[in-house]
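queue> pop job 88
queue> type: inverse folding (structure -> sequence)
queue> payload:
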């Protein structure tokens, strides 16, 4: 497969996943902003935390001066000049899909094309604070439809592997960011971990990654921060956990390497990261410090993405 073809497939997979992840981050911010503020809690700004999780804080503040519902919608959802907005993600995903239409099934292309046309024709003009939840649900539904079309119609070949490597790598980054922002940024300084505000925030975080039901099924217990972290980092059964998503990146890179008849450095790095997670214990992670652990993990995940681009000679 040509490098430019594999690059388009990889970035298409990443940007479809990123659009959904941004919708999930904005939903967390919206639902947390609806929670009442206790008298002893102080000032709370979930939209600033959402901007941090979306890696958009600097750009949002430079352009709008403050983080609130309206500026978050404007910058994180609609701003074409923001390369990590939902607008940009859907546009870039469609552009890459158009460049490799022959590598996609008709169902996949039609889903992405229809998504962009509906966004550009309807949501770009009508999105506001009153219908933001409907929009975020729409984004999640459209990306789920795309993955369903891919899963149900596409050959399990090299093209399929590159799309999914991009998608799973992006999902890994998102899960780590949401966990890190909740633990390090979102909890007010004067709130005890395990307090009532903390409980509802963790529940909202679990909802944001579609894991609240899974948490109760696995633990059959009240929400506890260390169990949430264990579920989203170390549980292989959880499709958005770090260990699961990295296992898929490792497996797919192995499939690509087998097709090419050589082993790449990115596969070695992915395999090492997966193995360390596979044998890790949540007690050791907490002893290291959850924020410190996730911060280091995000740096390594970014390095893995750079290594993939270097090994296969493609860039955005």
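queue> result:
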């Amino acid at each position: 497969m040509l490098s430019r073809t594999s690059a388009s497939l990889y970035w298409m997979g990443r940007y479809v996943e990123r659009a959904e992840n941004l919708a999930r981050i904005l939903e967390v911010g919206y639902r947390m902003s609806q929670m009442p503020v206790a008298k002893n809690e102080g000032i709370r700004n979930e939209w600033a935390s959402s901007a941090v999780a979306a890696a958009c804080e600097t750009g949002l503040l430079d352009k709008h001066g403050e983080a609130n519902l309206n500026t978050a919608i404007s910058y994180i959802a609609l701003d074409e000049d923001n390369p990590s907005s939902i607008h940009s993600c859907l546009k870039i995903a469609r552009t890459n899909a158009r460049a490799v239409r022959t590598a996609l099934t008709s169902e996949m292309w039609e889903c992405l094309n229809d998504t962009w046309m509906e966004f550009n024709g309807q949501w770009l003009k009508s999105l506001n604070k009153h219908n933001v939840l409907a929009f975020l649900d729409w984004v999640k539904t459209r990306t789920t439809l795309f993955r369903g079309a891919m899963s149900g119609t596409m050959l399990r070949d090299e093209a399929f592997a590159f799309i999914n490597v991009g998608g799973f790598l992006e999902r890994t980054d998102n899960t780590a960011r949401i966990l890190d922002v909740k633990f390090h940024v979102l909890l007010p300084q004067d709130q005890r971990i395990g307090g009532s505000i903390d409980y509802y925030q963790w529940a909202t975080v679990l909802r944001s990654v579609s894991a609240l039901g899974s948490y109760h099924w696995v633990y059959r217990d009240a929400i506890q921060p260390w169990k949430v972290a264990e579920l989203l980092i170390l549980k292989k059964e959880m499709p958005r956990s770090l260990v699961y998503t990295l296992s898929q990146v490792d497996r797919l890179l192995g499939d690509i390497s087998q097709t090419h008849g050589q082993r790449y450095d990115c596969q070695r790095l992915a395999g090492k990261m997966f193995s360390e997670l596979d044998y890790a214990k949540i007690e050791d992670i907490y002893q290291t410090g959850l924020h410190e652990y996730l911060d280091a993990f995000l740096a390594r995940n970014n390095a893995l993405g750079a290594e993939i681009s270097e090994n296969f000679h493609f860039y955005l």
